[in-house]
């Protein structure tokens, strides 16, 4: 357990806010359909029921909805808006004002809850490239935006709902041109309110899969980026951190990040575990820079089992924050508590703690097509980065994501490049320079699962790391042990000579391999049970280049229910070697830590139990954390040891925990 200390500087990790007029916004809300009709609510509009549903939301602290103009009903004929639908939508907006709420209308719906819904007049025209159909879309957006632009309930606009599902993948240039026309249409009707696409931020820069919806390209047109996160995973820690990881990657847009959709269906998660999921996602995404949260969705639809899309996607009946009778589910209470905390922090005047750790994102993740880098290779990058992010969090490190070819910022002390197959040649030279400039540069070998040019796309192995590889062309050196035991030969950071790290080997035949090396002027720090070098170090003045010949992050990414695994111990040792300062830290990988600073100097630290265990903390004024519990601590102006007798100085401003648990 390390002592609390003020940071001497680091890489800024942005926290951006959607701006409406002259005011920075923090959005707390839900995606909204009335249980009086779901997507068909505008044909069966019940104002009394909608008032009741909205009142339930606002009483729980949710004052923003994402609302949907179901396109087949809003525009039943080409060029014509349905006036009855528009009038009902106007009443819906008026209810928002009456209740002190605001809404973000979504136009092209389109896709909804497992079904694609076309206006009857669309035919087989392409949504992105058919000029007549694009004109119909843009005209629809412009007219509706102009009609409601002056309404005080409007706080933003979204072009579509999950257009990559509705319109499908397409060429990047076609999608970007279509999006530009849609945004221009909205701005012609309302030049003031913020606009985004509603695509889910599923582009190549985040997922490694090219659907045409480039996060970078769309960012040039829009005012915020809105990830939609519904992960299906095999490891509880990764599952709870996935949305935060996505928010970090979506930061490539350099725009405010609003978690536009997230949630669980009660058919896939019990009430207790649904609350756990919400609690973990809300807090970890805040610490990842998100400044808006729109849950999916406000209500269950048990009354609509015979109506599509619920008839054929019955799990979609139960994503609600409330049951069909209007009673609150535990996850609604989680949002209420979270809202109270964030309001108390005065979030728009807070910033994330800077980081002295740079997590390098290879440029091949969103490489142009002419680079001939395969999708499997790109998704391997995402998997390794995600597991590295988990290990960072478990070791008390909140990394700053640095995208190649951006230079590593001067304030980084530790550079992490996990399980990497390929970096560009200039970046390898830059990493050598970083080590020479006094930083600790850590790179682990990893080929991933693709058989294409299966070898390390590395240069400068000898001058940077002081080793020579002993590979055979077209072949890998397999890891045949189910568990690799890595024994330390010398003291290294927080690890002592004789300590053993254990890594479960997993993955494909190509991925489950080691880089055979011959030390030249490198020190062998650790070896496996066969005596092969696993960790080597070459000194570069005050800096060092550390090579891991095993793809430890890849191994863990390919293993279910693995976290915490020993990568966190390796990362902790690297942080100690690099002199990385941690404002707060718990020497237990189950407890994740990070924090925010208010502009008046107040600092707030988070302790997040990422496990199903009750964890004895006995630090920072926190005795213990229940399973998946969260404690937020107001840190004293004068740093104290975490278990200092004056621990009362650490004031818990709001513990978050499962209902009925105690701290």
From TrEMBL:
Q: Does the keyword Hydrolase apply?
A: yes
An example GO BP is:
polysaccharide catabolic process
- Family matches, as Pfam families: Cellulase
Q: Which domain of life is it from?
A: Bacteria
Q: Which UniProt keywords apply?
A: Glycosidase, Hydrolase
Q: Which SUPFAM superfamilies match?
A: (Trans)glycosidases
Q: Which Gene3D superfamilies match?
A: 3.40.50.880, Glycosidases
- Glycoside hydrolase family domain residues are 54-299
Provide any one GO MF term from the record: hydrolase activity, hydrolyzing O-glycosyl compounds
**InterPro entries, alphabetized:** Class_I_gatase-like, GH, Glyco_hydro_5
Name used for this protein in its record: Endo-1,4-beta-mannosidase
Provide the species name.
Flexivirga oryzae
């Amino acid at each position: 357990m390390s002592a609390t200390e003020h940071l001497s500087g680091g890489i800024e990790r942005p926290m951006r806010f959607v701006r409406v007029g002259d005011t920075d916004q923090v959005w707390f809300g839900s995606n909204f359909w009335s249980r009086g009709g779901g997507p068909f609510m505008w044909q069966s509009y019940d104002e009394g029921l909608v008032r009741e549903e909205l009142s339930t939301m606002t009483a729980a602290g949710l004052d923003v909805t994402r609302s949907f103009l179901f396109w087949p009903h809003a525009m039943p004929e080409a060029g014509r808006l349905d006036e009855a639908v528009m009038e009902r939508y106007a009443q819906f907006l008026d209810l928002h004002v009456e209740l002190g709420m605001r809404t973000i209308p979504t136009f092209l719906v389109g896709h909804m809850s497992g079904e694609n819904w076309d206006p009857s007049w669309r035919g087989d025209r392409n949504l992105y490239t058919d000029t007549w159909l694009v004109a119909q879309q843009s005209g629809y957006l412009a007219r509706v935006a102009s009609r409601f632009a002056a309404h005080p309930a409007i706080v933003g606009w979204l072009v579509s709902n999950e257009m990559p599902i509705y319109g499908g993948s397409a060429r990047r240039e076609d999608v970007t041109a279509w999006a530009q026309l849609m945004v221009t249409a909205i701005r012609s009707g309302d030049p003031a309110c913020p606009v985004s696409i509603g695509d889910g931020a599923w582009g190549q820069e985040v997922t490694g899969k090219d659907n045409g919806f480039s996060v970078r390209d769309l960012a040039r047109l829009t005012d915020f980026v809105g990830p939609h996160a519904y992960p299906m995973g095999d490891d509880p820690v990764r599952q709870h951190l996935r949305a935060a990881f996505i928010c970090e990657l979506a930061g490539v847009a350099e725009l405010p990040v609003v978690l536009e959709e997230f949630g669980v269906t009660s058919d896939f998660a019990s009430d207790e575990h649904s609350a756990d999921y919400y609690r973990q996602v809300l807090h970890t995404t805040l610490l990842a820079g998100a400044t808006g949260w729109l849950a999916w969705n406000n209500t269950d639809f048990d009354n609509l089992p015979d109506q599509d899309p619920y008839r054929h996607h019955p799990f979609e009946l139960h994503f609600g924050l409330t049951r069909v009778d209007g009673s609150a589910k535990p996850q609604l209470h989680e949002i209420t508590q979270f809202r109270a905390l964030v309001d108390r922090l005065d979030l728009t005047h807070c910033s994330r703690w800077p980081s002295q750790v740079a997590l390098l994102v290879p440029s091949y993740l969103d490489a142009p097509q002419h680079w001939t880098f395969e999708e499997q290779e790109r998704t391997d990058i995402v998997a390794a980065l995600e597991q590295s992010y988990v290990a960072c969090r478990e070791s008390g490190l909140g990394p700053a994501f640095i995208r190649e070819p951006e230079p590593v910022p001067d304030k980084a002390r530790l550079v992490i490049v996990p399980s990497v197959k390929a970096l560009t040649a200039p970046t390898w030279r830059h990493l050598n320079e970083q080590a020479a400039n006094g930083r600790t540069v850590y790179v682990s070998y990893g080929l991933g699962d693709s058989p294409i040019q299966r070898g390390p796309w590395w240069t400068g192995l000898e001058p940077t790391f002081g080793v020579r590889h002993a590979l055979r062309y077209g072949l890998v050196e397999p890891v045949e042990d189910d568990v690799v035991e890595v024994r330390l030969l010398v003291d290294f950071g927080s690890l002592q000579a004789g300590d053993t790290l254990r890594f479960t080997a997993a993955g494909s035949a190509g991925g489950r391999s080691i880089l055979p090396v011959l030390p030249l002027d490198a020190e062998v720090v650790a070896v496996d049970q066969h005596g092969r070098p696993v960790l080597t170090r070459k000194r570069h003045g005050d800096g060092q280049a550390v090579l891991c010949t095993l793809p430890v992050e890849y191994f863990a990414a390919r293993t279910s229910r693995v976290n915490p695994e020993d990568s966190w111990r390796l990362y902790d040792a690297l942080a100690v070697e690099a002199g990385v300062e941690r404002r707060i830290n718990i020497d237990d990988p189950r407890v994740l830590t990070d924090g925010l600073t208010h502009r008046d100097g107040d600092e707030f630290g988070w302790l997040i139990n990422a496990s199903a265990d009750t964890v004895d903390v006995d630090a920072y004024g926190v005795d213990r954390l229940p399973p998946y519990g969260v404690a937020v601590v107001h840190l004293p102006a004068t740093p104290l040891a975490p278990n200092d007798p004056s621990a009362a100085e650490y004031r818990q401003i709001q513990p978050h925990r499962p209902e009925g648990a105690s701290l």
